[in-house]
Amino acid sequence: MNTVELIRKKRNGNQLTEQEIQYLITNFTNRKIPDYQFSAFLMAAFLKGMTKQETAALTKAMLYSGKVIDLSSIKGIKVDKHSTGGIGDKTSLILSPIVAAAGISVPMISGRGLGHTGGTLDKLEAIPGFRTDLDLKRYKSVIKKCGAVLIGQTKEIAPADKLIYSLRDVTATVESIPLITASIMSKKLAEGIDALVLDVKTGSGAFMQKYEDSLALADSLVNTAKAFKKKVIAMITDMNQPLGNYIGNWLEVYESVKVLQGEKVSDLLEVTLNLSGAMIYLGGKAKSVKEGVEVSQVMIDSGKAFDKFLEMAKLQDGDISYLKNPEKYPKSKIHLEVTATKTGYIESMNNFEIGMASLELGAGRMTMTDKIDPKAGIIFYPKIGDQIKKGQAIAELFTDKKEKVEQVKQKLLNAVKVSQKKTQPVKLIHKVI
Q: Residue 12: how many CB atoms within 10 A of its CB?
């Protein structure tokens, strides 16, 4: 095969065969195709799109560029969840122990923060000692012992994805649904799962801000999972406001602990229980998603889910004394309250700006070399549709960066639109596929 001819074929809008896509991925991963040629292919795929068949073939080639973990020695159906990312989205920390407590194995390979969105690995690493860099032998061992494990991508898993993603990032080809699909699914399928629940975010704090783009991505992910004969459910959930109230790594661990201990954080709980309910249903421990939601609530109410979280954290070297006694965690040097400047109803929010505000405080990375401050972040109180009064606290800031406080305070006030007319709360789950 000829690389230039394959680039030309895709540039002209023609469909590539599975063998042609395999050739491109294998030779790029082996560094026989240079970056400049593969960049040309990525742009051609971005501009001309890819069919369902091409997307499945691309996923397969990326999946088999490395190891596919064999979890056949672990009994039962293995189920994972993937979220496309958002502000305050800590559902993985809550649902993985819920589902494991219900008797279903949850092998989860997660990511770090990306842009304005937080990452599950960064949140877990806010727990002193918690290791997300387990090798595959220990990965299997933790699942066998407690039923859930949360680690980062290893060198053996979908190495093609790592190479391609770094190239997409610098060639303006990130927002391609087929390329996003292959990136997500190659990693998820490599985990050794039997079923997958997808949480595709939509709104101002999501990567896919338009509902029709979120729907197209959800359809693409579901079609690809089905092509690999995996059970799958996708939910399109709202990201026009933070999920829960806490934003920032340790703050989100703290809120997750509170929810696992029975505190009712209504929006966070609704989304999490629907996702865990779907996982329990796909795992064969409930006859419907609704029944799975009920089982999830029982796991929380009985204390089994929180016990499972402690067990998992301990097996991954986390110091669980901080989970049992969160008040002993180090405090930020600066703690400031932000108050409303007028009375009215919350009409809308720029959730992207709220996410960026938490990054400014140190809760995420502005550059690749930045160090995250795990204790930095925001507690953000109002929801769309809420009534607020002038002088009422809308947020609390936590940071060691004194020079950022005024800027972040203004960013948060500008991100919230207040109306004199009563507004409706947002619908949290837009569609189930």
A: 9
**Tokens standing for 177?**
């649904």
d(CA 429, CA 274): 9
What is the SS3 assignment for 38?
Answer: helix
H helical segments located in 111-248: 120-124, 136-146, 159-170, 177-190, 211-227
Q: First vs last Cα of the chain: how many Å apart? A: 39
Each residue of 32-44: pLDDT tens digit? 999 999 999 999 9
pLDDT digits (tens, 9 = 90+) for 338-380: 999 999 999 999 999 999 999 999 988 766 567 889 999 999 9
C-alpha distances in Å from residue 428, one per residue of 38, 417, 431: 39, 19, 9
d(CA 85, CA 226): 22
Weakly modelled stretches of the chain, pLDDT under 70: 113-118, 366-369
Instruction: State how far the Cα of 53 lies from the Cα of 58, in Å rounded to an integer.
Output: 9
Tokens of 84: 């496309």
**What structural domains and CATH numbers belong to the chain?**
3-49 (1.20.970.10), 79-324 (3.40.1030.10), 330-419 (3.90.1170.30)
396 three-state secondary structure: strand
- Alpha-carbon span 140 to 142, nearest angstrom: 6
Residue 132 burial (CB count, 10 A): 22
**Secondary structure (3-state) at 195:** strand
Q: What is the CA radius of gyration of the chain?
A: 22
**In this structure, are residues 248 and 400 in contact, taking their beta carbons and an 8 Å threshold?**
no
Q: Rounded CA gap, 341 and 18, in Å? A: 58
CA gap 132, 139 in Å, rounded: 10
Residues 344, 338: Cα–Cα separation, whole Å: 16
Q: Which residues are catalytic?
A: 82, 161, 168, 183, 187
Give the phi and the psi of residue 373 in degrees, each rounded to 5.
-95, 105
Q: Can you give the pTM of this predicted structure?
A: 0.92
| 3-class secondary structure, 108 | strand
